[in-house]
Amino acid sequence: MPYYYGFDWTYIVLVLPCIIFSMWASSSVNSTFKRYSAHHSSRRITGAQAAQRVLGWNGVSGVRIERVSGNLTDHYDPRTNVIRLSDSVYNSTSVAAIGVACHEAGHAVQYARHYAPIKLRAAIIPITSIGSKLAMPLILLGLVLSFLGSFSTGIIYLGIACFGLSLVFQLVTLPVEFDASRRAMAAIADSNILTEEEQRGARKTLKAAAMTYVAATAVALSQLVRLLVLFGGRRRND
Predict the structure, then answer these.
(1) Which of 103, 124, 119 is nearest to 179 (CA)?
(2) What burial letters (b/e) apply to 78-105, b meaning 16+ CB within 10 Å?
């Protein structure tokens, strides 16, 4: 394995920069949300009201909007057809809260319009969840059974393939999140939810949130590449 003076250079070179990027993205979304939480809509529309307007503008009905505890715990639940908005979004009139609320409404619109990527993401969630749980146990099992030669190598590669499913999930998630933000901003502008100046704050908030998904994809990709570098030569060595 590629170690140098006790250091795993594959982690330092491949994974660590992506983890730092992910930490920066997480910090950025929190700071951006906090910044634009202080900028309130001149029309005094709350996050819940804005989400309802997005649904109405898209002709979507039957979606409930509920309050959920926590900070930035906002999400759309397709199983119950409910948009859940956090304490800092539901009743807030800030441009940040409105941007987040409209983004979640964008997900509801995606399901109503049968947007293919979100349907695909929902379909692969069970498979990717199982795969991510089995990946490391399979790799470790392959290492323990290394005396079995090519059979152990096959188990390790199966574990790497299972890990690769998490990258597939992240890649499918990216267009889903960007499209939800696009739908949100279009509805915000066309429904006059925010002024042009206020829209810039909402857009920056959503862009910061989108970077967290980009970072998660980068981390998953770097970890997969690292596994391939670490174990890719086993078959040649066996």
Answers:
(1) 103
(2) eeeeebbbbebbbebbbbbbbbbbbbbb
User: Which residue do the tokens 């939800």 mark?
Assistant: 180
Residue identified by tokens 């809260």 is: 97
71/77 Cα distance (integer angstroms): 17
Give me the number of domains the chain comprises: 1
Tokens for 70? 């926590």
Per-residue confidence in pLDDT tens, the chain, 238 aa: 455 444 678 888 999 999 999 999 999 999 999 999 999 999 999 999 999 999 999 999 999 999 999 888 999 999 999 999 999 999 999 999 999 999 999 999 999 999 999 999 999 999 998 988 999 899 889 888 877 778 888 999 999 999 999 999 999 999 999 999 999 999 999 999 999 999 999 999 999 999 999 999 999 999 999 999 988 765 555 5
Which residues are designated catalytic? Answer: 104
Token duo for residue 232: 């890719």
Q: How far is CA 227 from CA 51, 67, 162, 188, in A?
A: 42, 41, 12, 44
Pairing status of strand 64-68 against strand 82-86: parallel
Residue 187 belongs to domain spanning: 3-237
